[in-house]
Amino acid sequence: QVQLVESGGGLVQAGESLRLSCAASGRTFSGYAMGWFRQAPGKEREFVAAISWTVGMTVYAVSVKGRFTISRDSAKSTVYLQMNSLKPEDTAVYYCAAGRVLAQTINQYSYWGQGTQVTVSS
Description:
By secondary structure, this protein is mainly beta. The chain has strands at about 5, 10-15, 20-25, 35-40, 45-50, 60, 70-75, 80-85, 90-100, 110, 115-120.
């Protein structure tokens, strides 16, 4: 049974940083891509960043490039999202996902976590 468990969300002020973690279990994720998505109230879920588990290739949404960094620790089966210079518009529930392709589209990801809330105050 695949499980993705996010942690690290919270309330911060604009300009501060947070690091989200996603602990993966239940299968071998070698060959998979791990992604972070977010959903703000009243908006559709959107892509944030993704990384290929084996090679470490990354892709970012334009809105977070240069501020967010995705990484993975294979020994811990954990993916991280380091978020710097946070803005109020980054406020959302952040979801971790796993899929077979390094992609920016929701339907390419088969497994999802329950989400963690990030709130950035101005």
